[in-house]
Every structure is written in C-alpha cells, then in structure tokens.
Design brief:
This protein has eleven helices and 17 strands. It is an alpha/beta fold. The strands form four sheets. Strands 3, 4, 5, 8, 9, 16 and 17 form a seven-stranded mixed β-sheet that branches. Helix 4 (158-168) crosses helix 5 and helix 4 crosses helix 10. Residues 8-346 form the Enoyl reductase (ER) domain. Keywords: Metal-binding, Oxidoreductase, Zinc.
Length: 348
C-alpha cells in the first residue's frame, strides 16, 4: 500500500509499505477518510530529524502520517472481544496507545499514560494517510450510521478536541466565550459552543476565517491584527468574557485570552507548542481566574462528541473546504500550510 510520510522541512513523500496483518488484540481498518489537523503542520514544518511532539522521540524509520483516521474494520486478530471490532463495522480511532493497564489507559485516556512512552498514530506510529491502518481493538470508537466518514475523521481529533475543551470549561448558555483562532479546531469550537447555547466571539488574523466563523454562528468577530483583542472583548461583553479558549498556539493570544476574562473567568489552552509569559498576580490571582490545559479527549468523550453533533444537528462536514487523494498530499499540505483555508481531508 501507499502511505504519506512527512520528511520534514515541508516535504512529503508517498512511500510503499506492506499491507498490515492484525496480531493478537489488533484489528486492521480500511481507511475511508483521514483528516488533516493543524498539529500535522508541526511535523510538516519540523527540521529533518527533529521531534515534532515534545517528549516523544523522533521516528527512526518512515512513519505514515495522519491522526484523524476513520474507516471500516476489515480484519480482526485473535483475542479481540471489543464490540466495535466486527468486520464491516464503521469506526473512528482514538489515536493513542499506552500501556493498556494503568488507570488512564483503562478509562480511555491512553495519551496520559505514565507507565510507558505512548504511541501517537501519525507521529511515532503509523497513521491514517494510507489504505489500511492496524491498531489495538480497544482504540476503536463506533461511528454512527448517520455520520459521514469525513465527519468521523474530524471528531477523531480537531472537533473532538474542541468538544473536550468546552466540557472542561463547563460551558453553558449562561456564558459568553471568546475563541482565539478559527482554524479547524476553533471553527469546531464555534459550532459546538453555539449549540451549547453560549454567545461566541471569534478571533483570527485571517479575514477568510473570520467570515467562516460568522457563517458558523459567531455573534461577533475580532481581528487581533487590527484591534487590541482583550480590550475589544471587554468592550463587547461589558467587562470581560466568562470563558476563553485558545486554539492558536500564539503567545500573544494566550496572554489576551487571560486578560479578556471577567473576574472569576475560565480560560483553556488547547493549541500545542510555543510558550507564554504572564503576570501571575495581575492576570490570574487577583481576578480569581482559572486556567485549564486540555489535551484532546478520551474514547468516551470522542463517542459523546459524535452523539452530540448528531443530536444537535451540527454540520461537521461544513468544516471541510478541500478534499484530496493520497497522491495529492504535497499540494494538500502546501495549501494547508498557509492557514487561511478550512479543513482538508483525504478520501480513500
């Protein structure tokens, strides 16, 4: 089979790999959709030979990219008892693998495993940008019949990450939330927050992405390249937002996300990488601000996100602006690297 490999320095290659065979406890999925996520760009842009995820060693051999896999079970190994692991089942995949035995792994939070170095599919273990993907059966999450494979791919990381963060913030219809960054995760958060009843302020430096945020239901939009973001949010809300969410990874946005809060406000960071320098007293302590870090979601929250999207009629498929085949990977990532379009997905 052919698989897309990130070589570093903005180079990708379509390489040959053997078709996988499932071992004990494993299944093989035939990919139907494999999403492109903003965190892929860290691998795409990294210097050759450098790690792209903090704490994970760089791969020592070519690894297939893509950590938003969605497809159909086509082969089941021995010793598999998961209800989802039946040939022909439509499934998403939780793209992490830990020790399988610790409390985090057993409750669906494999990425938090403290026992063994985790595998992240598409980073230091093969991912979904190929015809087939071999994974442990317990990483499978049912894809509802009414949800497209492309939407399932989005829920498998970007949309699921947004949903997990909003749950951590305990967002409700009482709240106004400012969402920094309107890429795939930020736009998902805008859709989801509106469905939860909140008022949404969408922020981005791309006019195109701000227009998409309006179309997705944002009550106000702010361009931080033109206005002081925190001041604009305080003016719109009469004192500060109840919640803020940073999906951008921008140090300036992270500071603004704290300073835009009202007293007792709640902020959440989900964007990977970079640093932030804050005045702990002024930005947090003296306003009783809560700062939350949120790293994706558990298998249970992934399933919950899919159900929520269906029940609330959220048009997850409208996130996608670009559909690709694997042999178009170089063009796909060159466009995605500009970060002014919507979400891309490989259909197989």
């Amino acid at each position: 089979m052919k698989g897309v490999v990130f070589l570093g320095d903005r180079e990708v290659a379509l390489m040959d790999f053997p078709d996988p065979t499932p071992g004990p406890g494993e299944v093989v999925l035939e990919m139907k959709a494999s999403g492109m996520c903003g965190s892929d760009l860290k691998q795409y842009r990294r210097a050759k030979g450098a790690a792209s995820v903090p704490g994970l060693p760089p791969p020592t051999e070519p690894v297939i990219g893509g950590h938003e896999p969605c497809g159909v079970v086509v082969a089941v190994g021995p010793g598999v008892f998961a209800a989802e692991a039946v040939e022909g089942n439509r499934v998403m995949c939780h793209h992490y693998h830990g020790c399988d035995n610790c409390g985090h792994c057993r409750t669906g939070w494999a990425q938090l495993c403290q026992t063994t170095p985790i595998k992240v599919y598409g980073n230091n273990a093969h991912g979904g940008h190929a015809r087939y993907l071999k994974v442990p059966a317990h990483t499978l999450v049912e894809l509802p019949e009414a949800m497209s494979f492309a939407a399932g791919a989005a829920v498998s990381c970007g949309t699921g990450t947004a949903y997990g963060a909003l749950r951590r913030l305990d967002l409700s219809g009482r709240d106004t939330i400012a969402i920094f960054g309107q890429g795939p995760v930020g736009l998902s958060a805008t859709q989801l927050a509106k469905a939860m009843g909140a008022r949404v302020i969408a922020l981005d430096v791309s006019p195109e992405r701000l227009e998409r945020a309006r179309a997705f239901g944002a009550d106000w939009v702010v361009n931080p390249a033109q206005d002081d973001a925190a001041a604009a949010i305080r003016e719109l809300t009469g004192g500060g937002a109840d919640c803020t969410l940073d999906t951008s990874s921008s140090p300036a946005a992270r500071v603004a996300a704290l300073r835009a809060l009202k007293v007792w406000g709640r902020a959440c960071y989900v964007g990977e990488g970079n640093n932030v320098e804050i005045d702990v007293s002024a930005d947090m302590l003296r306003r009783q601000v809560t700062l939350i870090g949120s790293w994706t979601f558990s298998t249970h929250i992934q399933a919950e996100c899919a159900r929520f999207c269906l029940e609330r009629g959220i048009a997850v498929d409208e996130l996608f602006t670009d559909y690709w085949t694997l042999d178009q990977a170089d063009e796909a990532y060159r466009l995605f690297d500009q970060q002014n379009t919507g979400k891309g997905v490989f259909l197989l």
